[in-house]
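quick one before i forget lol
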Amino acid sequence: MTRCCFYGVGFCMFVGTVLASGCASSARTDARVVQAAVAATAPATAPAPLASKIFNYADLTARASDIGEHRGIFRSPTATLDELEIHMTTLKAGLEPHAPHRHPYEEMVVLKEGTLEVTIEGKTSRMTGDSVMFFAPNDLHGWKNVGTTPAVYWVITWKTPKTAAVR
């Protein structure tokens, strides 16, 4: 069993239990048991980091909803982030995308056009097209389209090893 300890104590105990139970009646079966055990304990393959690419608006699929439209751009690890997610929303006048909420990751919203009423930790402000809002981790935040036309904005979130659980 000393040769298999390269894979860790838990693995060695698993293989030892399997072999002691009589499941390995031949060298061929021994090899299959070891291969199965290695596969079962191997870490899942992580997705490849996002490569450089252009994401054209015309190529994005719009998903209609009661509040407007959503266009997912990507959600992927990058070379320096555990996850980077970007989507575009068109929010109908008078509506909000969801109730105020908080989360452990940072978020940025880039308003292309429209007028939003934004609340951060109980303080309400207005923002108009070509503005940016930033939400720090765990801050209670939300927004509503208070204009007479649709609001169009990008939501950008990122996660790193420092991203903590919501408190």
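fyi The mean pLDDT is 82.
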